[in-house]
Amino acid sequence: MHRACLQPKTEILTPDQQRDELYGLDNRYVFAPFWHHHNQVAGFEDWSGMLERERIATANALRRHDTATLLSILFGRLYVLRNQLVHGGATWNSEVNRTQVRDCGALLGSLLPLFIDLMMDNADHEWPMPHYPVVDSPA
Fold first, then answer.
1. pLDDT tens, 92-127?
2. What are the percentages of helix, strand and coil residues in the chain, rounded to 5?
């Protein structure tokens, strides 16, 4: 992670956002070990204990202003939701999985402006090129 991301320039989430948006972290449906257990992968019988330990780790990261740990946990949850949306498990105009879609959407809505500010404030940094750039224009 780039060092600029670790500088405490701003709070990643305000206390209200922490309460409202991180509430979704308790949602088992965006927690990978829940799905591993559901799909009978060995070693995930204690998924609920893992969820509780990660909830505590999140609270500790917030208290210590440990941005790297917090983002790692949040991105793990977003990745599970992304997989649900892309590979099934969430359908258009359905009520199934809407809570986590709304929670994660609100979280991204809070984080993206911070990421853009971070990049703008560090414009001299040599950011990596996009992995999937546009290679052809439509005919």
1. 777 777 888 888 888 888 888 988 998 899 999 998
2. 65, 0, 35
- Residue 105 C-beta-side C-alpha neighbours within 13 Å: 7
CB 24 within 8 A of CB 103: yes
Residue located via tokens 């052809």: 136
Rounded distance between C-alpha atoms, residue 18 and residue 31, angstroms: 18
* Length of the chain counted residue by residue: 139
If you search the block for the tokens 């990421």, which residue do you land on?
115
- The token duo for 111 is 């984080």
CA distances, 5 to each of 10, 51, 72, 109, 131 (Å): 10, 26, 12, 18, 20
Q: How confident is the model at residue 17 (pLDDT cuts 50, 70, 90)?
A: low
The encoded tokens of residue 12 equal 């990643």
Tokens of 79: 């990745």
Dist. CA 75–CA 73, nearest whole Å? 6
Both ends of the chain: CA-CA distance in Å?
38
Q: Which of these, 110, 112, 90, lies nearest to 101 by C-alpha position?
A: 90
